[in-house]
Every structure is written in C-alpha cells, then in structure tokens.
C-alpha cells in the first residue's frame, strides 16, 4: 500500500459553504467517488490506483466525515445540500462532467445527483444501494423494515453516539467484519483507520444526522422518472442491510442499465471483492 499511497494527494476544496477533503490520483477525465456509512475516502483504496491510469480519480470525504467540515446543524445533512456539494466539487475542479461512483449513502447521493444534473454525468456506477423508488417500495415490506431497523435506532438523540463509541468503537469493527462474507478483506489497520475517522470531533453526530433526516429526504419519494444516464449497478448478494430483491426491475427506471451480482459477498462490495468490482467497472466504462 505504501508505494501506491505515495502517489496519492490529499487536498481540500471549498464548495457550498463547506471545506471538503479528498484524495486524488491520476490525470484525465474526472471520476468522482462517494463513500457510505460509516466510512470515508479510504473505502476506495483498491479502486483509486486502478482507475488513476485513465482518469483523475477523486475520492471525497462527504460532509461530516473524517477530514471534511462537520456543520453543527442537523439541517445541514439533507439531500439538497449533498447534491450542491457534488455539483460544486465537479465545477470547482474545472470539469463540466464526470463518471460518478457511489456506494451506500454515496450511492443514494449519486442517484439523486443523476436525476438532478443528468447532463453533468458521463456514466453512473452504483454499488449496493438500490434505486430510490425501489428503496421506498422496500421500506413498505416487513423483511426490509427488519433489515433497516438500525435506521430507527439512529433517530434517537445521543444513544447511537454512545453505542458506536463504546468499547473503543467496537460497533465500527462489527459493522465491517461482522457483516462481511470475506472477513480477511479488513485488516486491523483498515479497521483502525475507520475507527480513527469516526472518532474525530463531531464526526459521529454528523454521520448519524444523515439518518436522522432520512424521512424528510426526497429519496423516499416513490415516484421517479426514467434516468437517461448509462448506469451500472454492482451488488454483493449477501448484503445484510439491503435485500437483493431491491435490485429487481431497476431497468424500469433507467434507460441504459446493467447489473452485476457478486455472490458470496456482503455490503462492502468494493472492499470484499475489489478485483471483480474493478473488472466490472472497466468493462462498463469501455462499453
């Protein structure tokens, strides 16, 4: 990792009133990567050097995470603000378009950005986060409500923060190693990196505020049009939080849609099966 990491650059960009940290490598067209919960740019460590061969890869710390600004107000963590952040990053880096890649919450932001600014995307790649219409449908089923029960716990004040930081942030380790099929995908150093990011002042509350506003987010609106941006979805089939059935019939919402399922793989798909994820991304980008 040290040789690869030596050519990564850590930089900052101010957009939409917040200063966001990102890691970048490579030159060329822009590929922007958005991570999920409870992660940070590091989730893309296996993808950054791979795609830096052909792109300027930018792996962002979303607002509230790691080394990005963490506004105090809960109202700062809503979809409209996330979309403005992404728009500002693309333009602030001197681009009009990008390939947008998102996992988990980053995937939710990517879906919403694609509908808001389709003209700013060349292609869209989503990992283990269903189309918003499918997620809204899923939350009306008992099985998905059970899988998503943590969302309701996260609505409480203070309690989730205490649970997440207890016993040296054991819940962060459990989130990764406890739900991954390929446990060896996460070394002690990887887990320590995630714990350290979560332990930064204000980070836990900021990360949880994404969920505390979820029922006001437009992503739960059941009516969506047909997206014109060419889209690839990659899905680890053994996701404990999001059922595979949430991917079915996504093609009804996307004109040019492909899906690649990865068996024996959990929610953390680009970290559990990086070579396969990179292969599927490459094939899609070439097409």
TrEMBL record:
Domain AB hydrolase-1: 29-272
Keywords (A to Z) from UniProt: Hydrolase
InterPro entries: AB_hydrolase_1, AB_hydrolase_fold, Epox_hydrolase-like
GO molecular function: hydrolase activity
Protein name, UniProt field: Alpha/beta hydrolase
The species this protein was found in: Nostoc favosum CHAB5714
